Amino acid sequence: MTDNAVARKSAIRAEVRRRRRARPQAERDAADAAIARHGLELASELRAESVALYLSTPTEPGTRGLIAALDNEGIRVLLPRPTLDGGLEWVCSGGGELMTPGLGTPEPIGAALAGDPLGDADLVFTPASAVDRHGGRLGWGGGYYDRALVGIRPVDAVAGGTEPVRAPIVTIVFDDDVLDSVPTEPHDVPIDGVLTPSGLLRFAPG
């Protein structure tokens, strides 16, 4: 990655942090409710039985309303927890939460699920600092989701198709976090859509 790309990533993250910290609480509350509504609509459309989500930080678009809505519909919700080797393990929602030492991010309480729970999910929601209109996603620099998304395996073809498909990857951000472009690298997994308080924006394959 070039020095210019590194500098641009840092600049975007800094600007997103500034905007999010300045966002009024009333606007946050309205955004959280809209995210829950749109997210549940998408899960219902996909007839999802298992959804990977995450516990939002105080400045991110809130996900707890969406978690509760999915729980109420009997949809299994998978929540990530960082591991010592830089990966993510997954826990079913409902066990409470605590703050991750050193990272200052919330993590779920409960036993880690065995097998490949992320690979078995029907829909994967991810956080980000920003996304672009071409499926590019810019995280926060830890690389947790970059590594996890690469491991999502395709599932059997659906609707009479012949090509394997994988669960849709949809990133949750505020409307003003959707940019014309963000720096990406060749190994980055493109996202399939972005969920904002205004609704769902789908990206065409390729």
TrEMBL record:
Name of the top EC class for this enzyme: ligase
Q: Where does ATP bind?
A: 9-13, 137-145
**Documented EC number(s):** 6.3.3.2
What are the names of the required cofactors?
A: Mg(2+)
For this chain's UniProt record, which GO biological process terms are given?
folic acid-containing compound biosynthetic process; tetrahydrofolate interconversion
Concerning Pfam families, the annotation shows: 5-FTHF_cyc-lig
Q: Which domain of life is it from?
A: Bacteria
Tell me which UniProt keywords the record has, alphabetically: ATP-binding, Ligase, Magnesium, Metal-binding, Nucleotide-binding
Q: Where are the transmembrane segments?
A: none
Catalytic activity, as annotated? (6S)-5-formyl-5,6,7,8-tetrahydrofolate + ATP = (6R)-5,10-methenyltetrahydrofolate + ADP + phosphate
GO molecular function terms noted in the UniProt entry? 5-formyltetrahydrofolate cyclo-ligase activity; ATP binding; metal ion binding
Binding-site residues, substrate = 55, 60
Q: Does Transcription regulation count among this protein's keywords?
A: no
Q: Which InterPro entries match?
A: FTHF_cligase, FTHF_cligase-like_sf, NagB/RpiA_transferase-like
> Where are the residues of the annotated region Disordered?
1-30
Q: Which family does it belong to?
A: Belongs to the 5-formyltetrahydrofolate cyclo-ligase family.
Q: Which NCBIfam families match?
A: MTHFS_bact
Name under which the protein is recorded: 5-formyltetrahydrofolate cyclo-ligase
